[in-house]
Amino acid sequence: MSPEQPALAPRFQHSIPQGDDRERRVCDHCGFIDYENPRIIVGSVAIRDGRVLLCRRAIEPRKGHWTLPAGFMEQGESPAEGARREAWEEARAKLEIDQLLGVYSVPHIGHVQLIYRARLLDDPIAPGPESQEVGLFAFDQLPPTLAFPSVTWTLQHYLETCDQTDFAPRSAPQNGPEAGNSTRKVGL
């Protein structure tokens, strides 16, 4: 492009591209299709001496509520590497990944969560920039305000599988009150 020619700014409209079956954002100028795909969240249920690592969120959404160390997977990393990185970023925790615990699809927000069972390797833990505080909690003494329904599902699934070495990864409940309740206590 020469300096005399102004660049065309993309102008998107929603239409069904040829050969596709759903409406997408398509650039009127060049035909580029802006595929909007789910984002991948990676995290862990990190355990030491029977207690689970939780982080009190310092950022929205759900600031001040407790969650597992988890976040968006980055380009160039495996899901397990991402889970280890998130534990470090949020709780300055080093992990040994055990195995995949659950794959949780949350379509209404476009997320797929891959959560691992893990062993917390060493002291100390400390809040990272996205955490107000971090702590190790017995399963019968969890904080009352868990940030997201998936935290409750994941903790329950950990308890169901903690003594197993061979199990299929769990998934989100499909209906019922547990499907959307983020403050429900994990059953023991």
Strand and helix layout:
Elements: E1 12-15, E2 24-27, E3 33-34, E4 39-48, E5 51-57, E6 66-67, E7 70-72, H1 79-91, E8 95-106, E9 111-120, E10 131-138, H2 149-161
Parallel strand pairs: 4-9
Antiparallel strand pairs: 1-2, 2-3, 4-5, 4-7, 5-6, 5-10, 8-9
Shape descriptor reads elongated
Approximately what portion of the residues adopt beta-strand conformation? 25-35%
The name of the CATH superfamily of the largest domain reads Nucleoside Triphosphate Pyrophosphohydrolase
How does the helix and strand content classify structurally? Answer: alpha+beta
- Count the helices. How many? 2
Write a structural description.
With 188 residues, this protein is an alpha+beta fold. It has two domains: 1-36, Ubiquitin Ligase Nedd4, Chain: W, CATH 2.20.70; 39-179, Nucleoside Triphosphate Pyrophosphohydrolase. The protein has two helices and ten strands.
